[in-house]
Amino acid sequence: MKSRTVLILAALVIAAVVFTLVLERDPTPAGNDRTGERLLPTLETALNDVTAVTVDAGGEDGRTTLRRNDTGWVVAERSDYPADAGQIRQLLIRLSDASVVESKTRNPDYYGRLGVGDVGADGGGVQVTLEGVPEPVSVIVGNQETRAGTGTYLRLAGEEQSYLVSAQLDPARTPVGWLDESLIDVEAADVEFIEVRQDDGAVLRIERGDDGLAVLDLPAGRSLASDTAPRSMAGVLRSFTLDDVRPATDFADEPPAAVAEYGLADGRVLTARLWQRDDGRYAALRVAFAPPAANAATAAPSTDDPATAVEPADEETGAPDDETDTPDTGREDAADDESTADPAATAAAAADLDARLAPWVFKIPAHKYDLMARRLDDLLAAPTLE
Are residues 99 and 247 in the same domain? Predict the structure, then answer.
């Protein structure tokens, strides 16, 4: 009895698979078999002609317009913030290289199974349109092939025939997914001092000495809850990326909750003005250059600079309960870099970076914000009761 049941179930499974394959694949009209051909045969020689890419996934914030201007690719929906050029290049190359593995359904009733329906419809895909090329290109990118290796289901917009193509295509669905997310990348070992100034006047100062980074002005009888806290705060600048971006003018009339300043071994001084809003944490970043001697741990930065001053605010900024342990990588390599660094080149690089960062305020990960906005009290162990 059990054997008969197993056989019946196996037959049903096989029938379902065959039925699905039949639905996905319609007979290709005679003379129209494109198996092995490139789906977009003229695109390869026209890649440099592409001036804009539109990615439409439907829904709120689901349309992205990527434009190429004199400085490179930008995201129109984010006030022309720089786009991830490598991601765009990868999409264009994969589209140009995509060859037809197999013709699939021409029946709109079955598009949903492959994800190649019109944008916004049930089973709809992502429509990618290229501008500037001699022959218009607009494709609807569907699901990834999961049964027989790699590939993507795809349909030329306005045409009935769908295909399985050889390329792996998975374009980002929102403008945020196309942003160049990299901002700065500084090792903890290159940080000489940190100063965090709160809107209520509280100051936290960390400086590098012979024994590494240390917190200054500890209250009498108090100690740090964790000896790694200074290194964790210095490590926040490593692989520092954005979650989203807004024009700096959106924050022009709002005083920051805190200002964090980082003095680096090469003479750069990074200033982060910090805001905490209901929709996330934000930072405005500026970079300046001072000779390394003036950037030593014993020389506290001026608090009179209007670009870094903190105006009083009504609300206090919260602080994190824990910190990420960042290993201390030592100062030997940093010292070697200092001896060979060209101050003029460093100053020029700092000016270039500042020009790129200055027009924007960046939404940043919450854990990064929490490390940047810490107060002295957040680092202290609980008082010992006598």
Answer: no
